[in-house]
Specification:
By secondary structure, the chain is of the alpha+beta class. It has a single domain, classed as Glutaredoxin. 39% of the residues lie in helices and 14% in strands. The chain is built from six helices and four strands; from the N terminus they run E-H-E-H-H-H-H-E-E-H. The protein has helices at residues 12-23, 40-50, 63-67, 70-73, 79-88, 110-113; strands at residues 3-7, 28-32, 97-99, 104-106. The protein has a four-stranded mixed sheet, with helices on both faces. The two termini are 15 Å apart.
Length: 117
């Protein structure tokens, strides 16, 4: 499987991540996280593979997250409801997301991404 970058082109962190991948000559396919948002099944798989808590996949600083008052609502939701919510709107997903054979990286932290090289 080729690396997959899920990103939002207007996001400065996503732009940095993409430039980093290119500078490090790491091949990847890219996918606009809003126009081609992840399906529920993909999210379930990525969350499982990542070993991270599902809340790490939420873009907690995003306008949509705040608009929906998710800080209050998420603790009372089931895991399935959270995944359906993430699948419903790409802006709710923390980005960029890098899917590799070995790792699922959420957000751009250069030190973590070094492990992909």
């Amino acid at each position: 499987m080729k690396n997959l970058l899920l990103w939002y082109p207007k996001c400065s962190t996503c732009q940095k991540a993409k430039k980093w991948l290119e500078a490090n000559q790491i091949s990847f396919d890219e996918r606009h996280i809003v126009e081609e948002r992840p399906k529920k099944e993909e999210l379930e798989e990525w969350i499982r593979q990542s070993g991270l808590e599902i809340k790490k996949f939420f873009n907690t600083s995003g306008l949509k997250y705040k608009e929906l008052n998710l800080k209050e609502k998420l603790p009372n939701m089931t895991e399935e409801e959270k995944i359906e919510l993430l699948a419903s709107n790409g802006m709710l997903i923390k980005r960029p997301l890098l899917i590799t054979n070995k790792k699922i990286l959420v957000g751009f932290k250069e030190k973590e991404w070094e492990e992909v090289k």
